[in-house]
Amino acid sequence: MPLRYSMLAAGVAGALLVPAFAGAALADPGGAGVRAGDTTSAAEKNRVDRVPAPKLHWYECYDRAECATVRLPLDYDDPKGPTTEVAVLRMKARKAEQRIGSLFVNPGGPGGQGTAMAYQAPSFLSPDVLDRFDVIGFDPRGIGFSVNVKCFKSTRDQTLALQGSGVAFPVGGKQESAFIASSRALGKGCSTSGKTLAGAMSTAEAARDMDVLRRAVGDKKLTYLGFSYGTVLGQYYANMFPDRLRAVAADGVVNPVSWTGTPATAGRILDDRLRTADGTAKALHELLVRCAKAGKPKCEFAGYGDPVKNFDVLAKRLKAKPAGAEGARVFYSDFISAVQTWLYAPGGYTFIDEFSSELWRETSPTSTAAQAGAARRALATRIAERRAEVKRQKEAAEKVLAYDFPYDNGLDAFSGVTCTDGLHPKKAGSWPAATAAADKRAPYFGRAWGWTSVQCAGDAWTVRDEDAYTGPFNRRTSAPVLFVGNYYDPATNYNEAVSSSKLLPNSRLLSSNSWGHTAYGTSKCVTEAVDAYLVAGTLPPAGKVCVGDTQPFEPHPRPAPTTKGPADASAMANQANATGNGTKLPPVATRVPPSILLGTR
Predict the structure, then answer these.
(1) Going from the N-terminus, what domains does the chain have, and what CATH number goes with each?
(2) Distance CA 227, CA 188 (A)
(3) Residue closest to 190 by CA, chosen among 456, 521, 9, 388
(4) In 295-368, which ranges are continuous DSSP H helix?
(5) In three state form, how does the secondary structure of 375-396 look?
(6) Left if phi > 0, otherwise alpha if psi is -120 to 50, otherwise beta: which for 359?
(7) ω before 110 within 30° of 0 (cis)?
(8) How many C-beta atoms lie closer than 10 Å to residue 41's C-beta?
(9) pTM for the structure as a whole
(10) What values do phi and psi take at 249, rounded to 5?
(11) Between the N and C ends of the chain, which has fewer C-beta atoms within 10 Å?
(12) For the segment 57-67, what is each residue's pLDDT rounded down to a tens digit?
């Protein structure tokens, strides 16, 4: 079954000056002293505050962590009614005597596991943060180790229903019709078989759960670090509970107005609002321009001519005919999705260069038979190695179920949040025209991103959450929110960080001239700035721009291989990627479409 989403040793100056207690006051970004902010609405207070803080019965798990499960109201309007179980994991502060409080983390998705990110905190958070905070992750309702949303009655039903969506994204009328049929089946399944939980999975419900968990761990105010879609959760919390923030850092930002939509934008597909494809196209174009400037010694693809023009030539060749041999064929959608995936890592440009060059030699009419054959064998080896790695990861992550083949609810979970949160076009049949238009605006990636939300169409997805939050998103918060935007982020357009920071009057934007999805860990500059904010409340100067350590085709160490943990750890999430300087990046969950290199063919 295809899934349409995939997943720092720096001291902080002055950190020891912060009082070691939860809820420490933070600096006013305007420098004019503390200003009164907005307060939590009476409706939200009534919903959440009457729910008693649950007792967390922690137990040791995964060698170094503590785990717990809690039962929370399925509907906060009925706190004594049906409940759902939510999984929580804690990595305790390494220096209890200097402990500030708890740091809640979320890796995005939607569908990413907060428990996995918390477990992996030692691999990507700086020593000072690990010393001073209990790192807390919870799997949002319906997801991961929490009670799962399940939109089909069995794995068989799911597999049969989704067989038309077994491509990275559809190309051509036949694939589009099959993809729409499967997406409608998913939407209808979540609106019937999965209705009870799918209709209670909005980001607002996750924010309410997080507020209850904040009280449960004893924090007076929330300290939070969210990535990608996790920035949506952070902004929802900031606007729903504006007086309950100690610090909220959002890296790889999604504008919540773009995410939810408005009556004026309800007829537009989600990515036309988010402009993610535009950001991906921008990153690829800049990468190809730098390839041309670097030349063949540093970028092999430049040896065949203008990389910008030749990438388009290669894409057209693959549209006409797939490359590779039977069993290891590369279709146009596979190629684009693979490039899209590699843009997520700061050092991913090396693989884009190698893969494009291999495909160029295999498809070029001027290649000799020997050259084409060698390229075909290289492609087959690359695909076989990737498939073997994906298989190993899936086997390590597979849960043992007693009465059926394992049911993968990743797409159900992604959809349960995405479709319930926002407004979407009424007809699934409108997606071919909309995504074709998007592809003209954002070459190659308009379709790749646009098709991720077709199951949310009004004639497919009918279940709603009456308590979903739709704004306002411009509340004055009790502490400044720090937004971090990366110029060449392929999954969260930098413009979304800029516009989000302008929504919240009490916020600050940190920009980064860096590559890959999200910026934390890509440079000492970004990492220290975020750490200083989380620990001491110190904001970076207004207009601050950091530069990523890894820049395409400039001398730097090749990305180090990731270090795999024990089987039970890898079962929780993919390991963090490595940057050019060997440090680990946060294990961010994303909504990348699949590709042949992710094992879907």
Answers:
(1) 15-33+58-148+198-265+474-594 (3.40.50.1820)
(2) 30
(3) 456
(4) 307-320, 332-342, 349-363
(5) HHHHHHHHHHHHHHHHHHHHHH
(6) alpha
(7) yes
(8) 14
(9) 0.88
(10) -110, 130
(11) N
(12) 999 999 999 99
